[in-house]
Amino acid sequence: TIKGSKESGKTVDKLAGGLLTADFNEDSCLSRYHKSSLYRKASPYKPSEYLVFKLRSYEMLHKRCGPGTDAYKKATESLSHDEISVGECKYIVWIAVYGLGNKILTLASMFLYALLTERIILLDQRKDISDLFCEPFPGTSWLLPLDFPLTDQLDSFNREHSRCYGTMLKNHHAINSTTTEKIPSYLCLYLIHDYEDTDKMFFCERDQDLSRQVPWLVFNSNLYFIPSLWLIPSFQTELIKLFPQKDTVFHHLARYLFHPTNQVWGMVTRSYNAYLSRADETLGIQVRVFNRRAGYFQHVMDQILACTQREKLLPQVASQVITTNNTSKTPKLKAVLVTSLYPEYSERLRNMFWEGPSSTGDTVQVYQPSQEMYQQTDKKLHDQKALAEIYLLSLTDKLVTSNSSTFGYVAQGLGGLKPWILYQPKNLTAPEPPCVKAMSMEPCFLRAPLYGCQAKTVRITPFVRYCEDRITGLKLV
Ligand code: GDP
User: Fold this and answer.
1) Average pLDDT of span 367-378
2) If you measure from the C-alpha of residue 312 to the centroid of ligand 1, how many angstroms do you get, rounded to a whole number?
3) Is residue 33 domain-shared with residue 67, that is, in the same domain?
4) I want to staple 287 with a disulfide (CB 3.0 to 4.6 A). Which of 200, 224, 306, 340 is the partner?
5) Is residue 469 part of a domain?
6) Which residue puts its alpha carbon closest to atom 11 of ligand 1?
7) Which atom of ligand 1 is nearest to the CA of 103?
8) How far is Cα of residue 459 from the mean position of the Cα atoms in its chain?
9) The predicted structure's pLDDT at residue 4
10) What is the mean pLDDT of residues 114-120?
11) Could you tell me the distance, in angstroms and rounded to a whole number, from the CA of residue 376 to the centre of ligand 1?
12) What's the confidence (pLDDT) of residue 385?
């Protein structure tokens, strides 16, 4: 059985408070059940009973409608003939675009949208998604079969495509439920950071009534659009039932959906056991920089030190050797996990704490798993390292992240951590203050619609705020 059991003296809640189904074979995915809870502290946030109920209903729906079923066959046949299918199954297709953090946030957003609209999600598997994540739904697959009729078109669903909703609106081809105008068999939603006002109409109540009738929705997105779903009145009532604690949406969805494959899990556990498990305290520092000019390194480094010392996350390095033996206190081992594409930040930190003693007498150990140097999205091993590092960051006690980075957002959400966010350095100096503690662990919707139909709800909804690191972004608090 895989209910809560005692292992190495620790009670582990393998099903994460009911979030996970018990219907999987344990060895198929080591990260899914107890293996994961041995590394992670139990989350203090419990999923609502209603969320658990909806997840189990979703799993049944996915089994009924997923690949290989008669329903799927019927729905894809009608799609080939551009006809409306009449079955009970409606679908969302995810196109794999942008970096891993972007992908994970978009998948979580789409999955919640699917829960709200009784659809199932299917994932474009032409890239490396199945090398990264285990299947989350039992007895079926979340991968879109490669012979899906629109596969060859997936890469063409850009902003100008005539089947994308914003473009249709621009060309005055709005689908209209009150006229006899034909409802399309599929619709593309272009929700990429450079989308336009007509694309943003997707987040309007009235437009939801229309897209609800379309059997296939294809999402071309790289955004965490959940905050704006809360601003659609008909969804808000349901969302409050699902997530009475509003700032736990991504935390629960991520723990439900994203289980690293055994290969990635091996990387996570080897790092964890070698560098983090014996520490008294762990600190994660995510350094995402887009500039490698000589001066830039110094002021980002200054900023990291200013932030970690001001917030008492790291001790200072004493200027002279401390001779008095402070025996009243046993020195602690502090492990610092740095993630970055570049090696120089962790090298400087490691040297600092080797060259001089820490002011508190504590030992500081600095570790950086990889230095990939440049982003190589969709390359299997590169992406696996990125996922392993996101996961490792999420296992730390305290976390410092770089502003506006989806990589950091995923780590904080998975870990249930409110990070200290490093502000964007401006004018070649470290900003003052260097960092700010996040209001909540939720990711920021970096390009949220703020005007049009959502203008009023943005103003009157107290739990959706402007992000700390992006004044025009929205996040749940
Ligand atoms: P964002 O661009 O910061 O929002 O995050 P994304 O994850 O969407 O895209 C950045 C990509 O660059 C990652 O997915 C990785 O491929 C790579 N990358 C950036 N920072 C790191 C890092 O600290 N470690 C590793 N291994 N890869 C990184």
Assistant:
1) 96
2) 27
3) no
4) 340
5) no
6) 99
7) 8
8) 26
9) 42
10) 98
11) 9
12) 98
144 has pLDDT over 50: yes
Name the least confident of 128-142, 163-177, 425-439: 163-177
| 163 shares its domain with 82 | yes
Q: How far is the CA of 307 from the centre of ligand 1 (A)?
A: 22
For ligand 1, atom 7, the nearest C-alpha belongs to 101
First-to-final CA distance of the chain: 37
Q: Does 196 share its domain with 251?
A: yes
Cα distance between residue 257 and residue 228, in whole Å:
21
Q: Is 451 inside any structural domain?
A: no
Query: Which of these ranges, 5-14, 236-245, 361-370, has the smallest mean pLDDT?
Result: 5-14
Q: Verify that 66 and 184 share a domain, yes or no.
A: yes
Going by CA atoms, what residue is nearest to atom 19 of ligand 1? 341
Instruction: Say if 391 falls within a structural domain.
Output: yes
In the reported structure, the alpha carbon of residue 426 is separated from the centroid of ligand 1 by a whole-number distance in angstroms of 22
> Which domain, by its residues, includes 276?
267-443
CATH of the domain at 285: 3.40.50.11350
Question: 431: cis peptide before it, omega within 30°?
Answer: no
Task: Report how far ligand 1's centroid is from the alpha carbon of 343 (Å).
Answer: 14
Nearest to 415 by CA among 44, 154, 138: 44
Looking at the structure, do residues 202 and 55 belong to the same domain, yes or no?
yes
Which protein residue's CA is at the shortest distance from atom 10 of ligand 1?
99
* pLDDT attached to residue 208: 94
Q: Are 90 and 211 members of one domain? A: yes
Quote the ligand 1 centre to 180 CA distance (angstroms): 47
Same domain flag for 388 and 277: yes
Q: Specify the pLDDT at position 1.
A: 37
- Given a cut of 70, whether residue 220 has pLDDT beyond it is yes
Tokens of 152: 């060859």
Residues 304, 217 share a domain:
no
Question: Within 6 Å (CB) of ligand 1, which residues are found?
Answer: 98-102, 288, 339-341, 370, 372, 375, 377, 382, 385-386, 389, 405-407
Q: Is residue 109 part of a domain?
A: yes
* Helix axes of 344-355 and 294-310: crossing angle, nearest 10 degrees: 60
Q: Can you tell me the distance from the alpha carbon of 58 to that of 29, in angstroms, rounded to the nearest whole number?
A: 21
pLDDT the model gives residue 429: 80
